[in-house]
Prior knowledge:
Layout: H1 3-22, E1 26-29, E2 32-35, H2 43-55, H3 57-83, H4 93-100, H5 104-132, H6 137-161, H7 167-188
Antiparallel strand pairs: 1-2
Helix pairs in contact: 1-2, 1-3, 2-3, 2-5, 3-4, 3-5, 5-6, 6-7
Amino acid sequence: MTMTGILIVAAYIAAQMTSDVLSLKIAVVAGLSVDVGTFIYPFTFTLRDLVHKLLGRAAARTVIVAAAAINLLMAALFAFAAWLPPAPDWPLQAEFAAVLSPVWRIVLASIAAEVLSELTDTEAYHLWVTRVTHRYQWARVLVSNSLSIPLDSLIFCWGAFGGVYPAATVWSIFWANVLIKGAVTLLSLPGIYAVREREP
């Protein structure tokens, strides 16, 4: 693997982990409820496309599964840290546990959404390259992301929040997710030109 490939894989996993932690906060943006991880997570789709372009489909699939396993381990470690008794003079046990103890429903919904949407993105990207054209690299990213973004948002929002919040709030989070992820996709489109195509 090239140095560029290592950096892209590292960036993909870092973005996955960071977005999962930030999704613990639900904010209001332009009148819509949104989990804050939505501002980082969309970059993973283009980063995954870069992995695919540089290292191939098998590598992209492996990175997706590895990131899911790492996120699951991260949540388990947060739970373990919250479970450990605090030092007598450490005053933040309740705050630490309240913020970082995983809500397993959210963790599992997030990982399911990530894996299914990213694998869908991988297959759509691959079909574009093998069945449509190698040209118009921006189009392969746009097409694959336009399928994976709504799928990811639907699985995550309803898996994590369905039945917990009113349906109107869940749909608000869903639409905020789709809109923000779509905007980030457009901003990140030029990134696909950052690496050379993998030799067949």
